[in-house]
Specification:
The chain has one domain (about 5-165). The protein is built from six helices and four strands, in the order H-E-H-E-H-H-E-E-H-H. The protein has helices at about 5-35, 45-50, 70-95, 100-105, 130-140, 160-165, and strands spanning about 35-40, 65-70, 120, 125. The chain has a two-stranded antiparallel ribbon with strand order 1-2. A hairpin with a 3-residue loop joins strand 3 and strand 4. Helix 1 packs antiparallel against helix 3. The radius of gyration is 24 Å and the shape is flat. The termini are far apart.
Length: about 170
């Protein structure tokens, strides 16, 4: 039985998801500005995913540590932005706001168009833009590149590169 059938439960879940999204946006801002992220220094498999579960500051004698570096700004901050966006959008949809429609309208520049993003309370997010663009992307990456023999870095025949250079 789906407990989110009641509008009060759906609203509560929506507000919780929007607050979680706001927390991820804050974590991304901290990651960009300070270049640091909190992690739990316990069991290694949990250490890897712990930045996604730590939303409160560490106490004095806890195993929560701070990692700093450029990798936080380049890797973790964009991941936190995407997770925050997905949490906020799904929370708004659960709360009854047309957030996904507004994002699609914004991404189309204010004009109606084919949906880029869709959300269902039972199935979650769908990205129809990827299914529409996959043939074009496949054609782009699978297209042969015709190079002349002097432009090739690695020869197409069975000779080594040195043998190819010596024969020229």
């Amino acid at each position: 039985m789906n407990i989110l059938i009641s509008p009060q439960a759906s609203l509560a879940v929506g507000i919780a998801l929007m607050l979680l999204g706001a927390s991820f946006f804050y974590k991304s801002a901290v990651a960009v500005v300070k270049g640091s992220v909190l992690y739990w220094a316990g069991f290694l498999p949990l250490t890897v995913v712990s930045p996604f579960f730590i939303h409160l500051p560490a106490s004095k004698n806890s195993m929560i540590k701070r990692a700093e570096g450029i990798w936080v700004q380049t890797v973790m901050a964009p991941i936190f932005v995407v997770v925050g966006m997905l949490c906020s959008l799904s929370g708004a949809e659960y709360a009854g706001y047309p957030a996904v429609d507004l994002v699609n309208l914004t991404l189309h520049g204010g004009k109606a168009g084919a949906p880029i993003l869709s959300f269902s309370k039972t199935r979650g997010f769908r990205f129809p833009v990827f299914s529409r663009s996959s043939p074009a992307v496949g054609k782009l990456f699978n297209a042969p590149v015709n190079l002349e023999s002097h432009q090739e870095i690695v020869p197409r025949n069975n000779q080594s590169l040195q043998q190819e250079l010596d024969s020229k």
